[in-house]
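Title: Comparing notes on inverse folding

I've been comparing how different people in this forum approach sequence design from structure. To keep things fair, I'm posting one structure and asking everyone to reply with a full sequence. Here's the target:
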């Protein structure tokens, strides 16, 4: 119960609205959409994870999200295997989800990394992300290539720290951009998520992390 409450509080802090009626378009798309409705039996969703940038040696890894049980009302119980070896992050199982919690995990992982890199508070950075989702994120219709065809998708982008009055304290990361591509035809609804901090040249970012859906199965 304590673990479930902790995860719920993190999600609430990121989503940042008391009722669905108060959500922005970005919040609705990310946190109040039943992304997992197209999962009808226990299965594992697999995502490729790619890190590059001048801050750390590049690496490729993987994330797995396993739907372990499905309730009569369609809610899912889920466990995670988030990265491996020294990059592994221990996220506890969650219960009763309709949306895709991999969004929350990706954002929380980013906030933790930002805190470690700058010495700033995870709560501070989490709140900046939340505020950006409320009124500064852009949402647009687009398409992505999946299964050999173009399918409908929603792109959400934001720069939570661009106009932060305290940006001088973490100037290197002030222009960090977040991009989410959500597609209802993709199992779990999340096609990709990317965070990118520009560097000295367009092809040399300070840091870039990309999580992209690969496949679903046993």
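Reply #1:
Here's my take.
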């Amino acid at each position: 119960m304590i673990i479930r409450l902790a995860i719920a509080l993190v999600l609430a802090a990121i989503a940042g609205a008391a009722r669905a009626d108060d959500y922005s378009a970005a919040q609705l798309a990310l946190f109040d959409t039943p992304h997992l409705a197209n999962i009808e039996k226990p299965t594992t969703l697999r995502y490729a994870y790619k890190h590059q940038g001048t801050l750390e040696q590049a690496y490729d890894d993987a994330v797995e999200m396993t739907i372990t049980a499905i309730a009569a009302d369609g809610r899912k119980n889920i466990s995670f295997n988030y990265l491996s070896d020294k990059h592994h992050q221990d996220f506890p199982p969650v219960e009763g989800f309709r949306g895709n919690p991999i969004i929350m995990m990706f954002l929380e992982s980013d906030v933790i990394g930002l805190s470690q890199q700058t010495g700033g508070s995870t709560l501070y950075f989490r709140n900046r992300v939340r505020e950006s989702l409320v009124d500064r994120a852009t949402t647009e219709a687009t398409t992505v290539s999946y299964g050999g065809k173009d399918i409908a998708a929603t792109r959400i982008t934001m720069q939570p720290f661009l106009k932060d009055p305290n940006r001088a304290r973490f100037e290197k990361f002030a222009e960090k951009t977040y991009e989410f591509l959500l597609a209802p035809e993709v199992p779990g609804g999340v096609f990709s998520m990317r965070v990118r901090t520009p560097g000295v040249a367009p092809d040399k970012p300070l840091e870039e992390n990309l999580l992209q859906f690969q496949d679903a199965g046993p």
